[in-house]
Structures are given as structure tokens and as C-alpha cells.
Fold this sequence. Notes:
Helices cover 3% and strands 55% of the residues.
Amino acid sequence: xxxxxxxxxxxxxxxxxxxxxxxxxxxxxxxxxxxxxxxxxxxxxxxxxxxxxxxxxxxxxxxxxxxxxxxxxxxxxxxxxxxxxxxxxxxxxxxxxxxxxxxxxxxxxxxxxxxxxxxxxxxxxxxxxxxxxxxxxxxxxxxxxxxxxxxxxxxxxxxxxxxxxxxxxxxxxxxxxxxxxxxxxxxxxxxxxxxxxxxxxxxxxxxxxxxxxxxxxxxxxxxxxxxxxxxxxxxxxxxxxxxxxxxxxxxxxxxxxxxxxxxxxxxxxxxxxxxxxxxxxxxxxxxxxxxxxxxxxxxxxxxxxxxxxxxxxxxxxxxxxxxxxxxxxxxxxxxxxxxxxxxxxxxxxxxxxxxxxxxxxxxxxxxxxxxxxxxxxxxxxxxxxxxxxxxxxxxxxxxxxxxxxxxxxxxxxxxxxxxxxxxxxxxxxxxxxxxxxxxxxxxxxxxxxxxxxxxxxxxxxxxxxxxxxxxxxxxxxxxxxxxxxxxxxxxxxxxxxxxxxxxxxxxxxxxxxxxxxxxxxxxxxxxxxxxxxxxxxxxxxxxxxxxxxxxxxxxxxxxxxxxxxxxxxxxxxxxxxxxxxxxxxxxxxxxxxxxxxxxxxxxxxxxxxxxxxxxxxxxxxxxxxxxxxxxxxxxxxxxxxxxxxxxxxxxxxxxxxxxxxxxxxxxxxxxxxxxxxxxxxxxxxxxxxxxxxxxxxxxxxxxxxxxxxxxxxxxxxxxxxxxxxxxxxxxxxxxxxxxxxxxxxxxxxxxxxxxxxxxxxxxxxxxxxxxxxxxxxxxxxxxxx
Length: 785
């Protein structure tokens, strides 16, 4: 039974949709270190779960495009309501605000189908984390520690009945440690607590629930790596003393970012927080009957804030060459932070054994408010008509989403060292004139041309009435649904790209004594400020109709066939700001068609389930238009998706595979890209999980992989395919005690998921990569009661 993204919970053999579930026991065995990695075990979903911890995974489904990260056409939900209204908010992605712990009963996913009409802004699909509610009494406490990396975590949960009609559940976790990558400090720190209480009555229930999350994880968008070979057969390698799948440039020796805040006051940000999400939410769920109608009501308000500290690598170069380009021939390098602070680097060619330094743009993004309110009210009724049943559903969805974000980025110089030893460096002229100050080249983004110093304060309102009808008679079920989304966006934006800087100062640069020593240094003449007194308005609306029609033929008891056609949409949010899409004077859109992106999909499939064997095979087609910063394109994807499972006594295996042929069909800005495959889109992704259980011992593996993809839309530089093998073992000395061992990336595969902006092998032979973390081994001890 799956209920996510449809009118009512239905047996999968009776539903004309593609759905999957991950149960709590499977989640425990998979042992994923992040949600992005966990979602990779759902067929049809492509997730870049690399070195970003529990945040900023790029998640797409069935070849739908993903130009700038997040989850644009796929919505992440918690207990049936979206975590965020828009899945690709820049640096505010939904996976940074939810965690998988012992509170989770199961994860449900729907791909395509009625996801277009039973939720807003989710035409590609929905992944829903469903919490336990105390209907099964008991609980557990689990301690987990890393064996070859520093990580300590405690999970707990408990649920019980207070009376025959009243029950509760609560749980959470806390963790702390360096994590899978050598950072030199506790890059993971925090946890969450969730609770719910349910009152059951004849014909329904009322549930109140809440959550508090405060968790910091590292955010490593890019790490340098060597690249040689050819574009068609590239070879990625480690820089001396720096492993791209085990080290990070975000370390203990770069603890803060000194800059101006949204009010142009001097501020110091804690870079060691990495990506921190803080969520305080309260919700209500009710289900009851009036006459013959079943009424359900879901409401949640979430007070949300977040921050992201990472690095954008603007350049990596031999140390002396980069220093000379900034300060002239004979430039002098010295350490700015770390144990050698103030010491001159006498032989730059030998620094850290690699002789390299990097020009970095510290990503310092404050998401001051991501508050959101969501409410979903629906009513359903079933009529007996002829030999079948007619089910009708009517509903209304309402949400508001705040987005108050400050991008207070700067420019610094850094060495490249592994084991958490990376630090900032200074450069001065041969005559001793300082070009940098404590490692800062500029208190703004001069390293990338003065862009992306942005501030915006927005609110998005979404409204959507919807309805569905389904008639089930004998072996055939026919259904359809409609949804009409309308909403508006209002607020302000300010930054160098909006034209709000003073005349003659196009990048909003001023002079400021940032460190307060009474002396204006060269970097203090390059201080970027926000043109808050000349902020531009944002004021636009959207409206679109979504529909979905499907038919299911349950031919015989274990076998069914289905077909479905759907049209949905995704309203535009912050990804169209600062991109010459919004008129900076009026706040309206230059083209109304930019207000939302339509998605059309068709799918046909078969399902079989008998005697421990489950097989699902679906063919799909999708077409969409996307407007994004620097992008206006049409895409098409066709493919096939397989999901299966088999259990025979003590042996079980589950598997999934998706073949996708995706193409750029039109490009308004660069027609040469037409017929190319979108970047980072492999043709083949797969997952296999075999398991052998002999009673008190269980052994198994979790294998995921993909074929090659392209680093850029120009389809020149390839990213090799990979297979990552995980392994797990569980020993149960008694019914209530479980000792587990989990190995992630068993063979320590150095797998590249995506690269930076290079479309071909650069002359320097150095690129920026997002890669799967190296091998990590953890053990857990769990007590059930």
C-alpha cells in the first residue's frame, strides 16, 4: 500500500503509478551516510550524493533536467507535506532540513504519474519520509561509531499507547565528529528531536506533531584533482598530499569569514559550521468522516533558517606563478593562518609537496528565513455504481514560502594540504607591499568578476484547488485528476547584477577599514557592499493547469498493466533572480512564460507479484521546458525503469535499473547544444542489494552504480562511470540486541560524480570535482525494548 502522491492508499497492483518504498529495516542495512546517498537506492532517481554531507545533493528523476543543483522537479516531503515549497532553492535545499533516523517508519516514492496533481511543484515525483506514530509499541536505542573515521552518534525512539485511543511516539539523534573527510575539527555536530501524539476515534484520528533540528555538516562543493588523458578517456588523479575523495579545503585553519552583512555592517561568520540547518516545526493531521465523506486535513508551520559555508575554487596554480600574477615578479608568499602563521614560504615550489596555491571564493550564504506554512485539505467519497466503485476527491492546497538570503562572499588565497591542514596564505610584492590581508585578496568577489554578492527578501504564495475521479470495476480501474496552481512572488533583490550600484561603480565596491587597525590596506579598497537603498522590486504571478489520466488492468491476481499521461508544472522561484529574467525596475517578468516550467510525461508498465517475487517494468517519456540563470531550453527524455525483488527462505535480493536517453531539444541562448545529452546525466543507473539471513546473522551488500556522463552540455569531457559496493553484517545474540558492521565504498573507489565548469581538459591539468567519499567503516550496537 502506497499513499504518497495519490488520492487514497492503494495496492501497487491496482494503481496506475510507479511507486517504491524503503522500509526501516532496509534503511538500517543500507547504512547511507546521507539522504542523497539513501535516495540513490530508489529506481529512477539520480542523486549526486558525493562530498556534501547531508545537504545540497542534486536529485533528479527519469532524465528531467537539473541545471543548478537541488531537486527542481522532485519534491521531498515529510509526513505528506513538503519540507520546502521549492526543491532547488540556492543553498537552501530540502535535504539539508530533514534527517533519516529511528523515527522513520518507511520512505515512499512516486515517479511521474499523479505527483503532478496531488502536490504543487512536483511534476517529476515525490519522496516522502513517513514517521512512526506509536501504533507499534516499543522503541530502540542505538550507538554508532566510525572505526576508521571519527564519528559518534546516538539514536533513540519510543512509542506506546496511553490508552485504547491515545498513543504517542518520540525519537531523535545526536552526533559529533570529524566525519568521512579529514577536516581537522568536528565537521558534523548536532541532531534532531521529533514527537507526535495521536487521538484515535471512530472513523478517524487527530495527530499533533513537532520537530526540532539543529545540525551542522560539512559542505564541500568542489575539491581540486588532477586530470589527464583525453576528453573521451580522462584519468582523474590526486594532487600530492591531497585526496579528492578524502580531504577538504574547508578546515580548522579557515575558521571565519570577515565581510559586510546585509546592512553593510562588518560581520564574522563561523565557517566551521559548514552547512547548518535549524528547523522548529509544529503540525496537525486529522482524518474524520462526515456523512459518507472522508475528510483529511494536514497543516504545518516551520520556522527555518540555514547557512552554508563552502568554497568556490576560482583558480589553482603553481604558487609562485599565481603570486607573481597578483603582485608582480618576485612576489613573496607567507602563511596567514595555521601553526606557521607569519612565516615566509621560502620555496613555494615545494609547499605541501605539490607547490600549489588556490584562489578561493568562500561561499558564505546566510538563509535568514526559509519559514514556510503549508495546508492541504481534501475530501473523498466512494459510491457503488454498477459492478464497480467510483471514488471522487476534492481538495485545496495553500502554502507560503519565505526566502531571505544573503550571499556575503569574499576572495582569499589558500594552500592545498590534506589531513585538515589547509590554511590561508599572504602575498606581497618583492618590495614588501602587502597585496593580501590575513589571506584576503578582497572583501568581495573580485576573484570571479565581482558577481554573486546578492541579497534578497522574498515571499512566495501558492494556491491550488484539485480534484480526482477513479472508477474501479472488476479488472479495470480508470482515473483522472486535475490541479490548478496559481500564486505570486513578491519582495526585493539587491546586488551588482540588478543595476542598483551607484553610477560609475558597477560592482558596488567601497573602501572600509575592515579589521579596525586604522590603516586602509589594498584588500580594504576592494570591499563589496549591498545597494540596499536602491533594491529592486520583485513582483510576478503564475498560473497553470495540471492533469493526469491513467488506466490499470489487473489481468490476473499476480499481474497488472497500466498506462498514464500527465502534465504538470514547476513555478519559478529564486533561480530566476539576478539573471536578466526579472525586470529590475518593475519587478515583473520580461516574459510571462518564465513564470513556470511545464512538464509532460507518459508511462506504460507492467507489475508482477507472486510467491516472494516482485517485478515492475515501466517505459517512460518526458518533455519539459526550463528557464534558469543563463538557461532557456527544451528537453526530452525517454527510457525504461526496472524494479524487482525476490525472497527464498534465507536469501533475498532487490534490484533496480533505469535506462535514460535524454536530449536538449532546443536552446534559445546556444543552439549548438541541440541534440546533446544534458551534463551529469548517465544513460544507465542501477542498484542491487543481495542479503543472506541465517537467523541470528545477516550478511549482505548494497551495490550502486552508473554509466559515464558528460561534464558539460557541450558533450566533450566525459566523467567515467562507476560501481560503488557497500557491505553490511548484523549479529543478533538475542531478540533485542543487534550488533552491526557497515562498510561504505568497500573497495575505496575514487568515483567522480561531477566536475566544475571545465568542458574539456584544461591546460593546467587541474579540475574541481565532486566525488564519492572514500571507504568508511562503522559499527552499531542496538537495543530494542
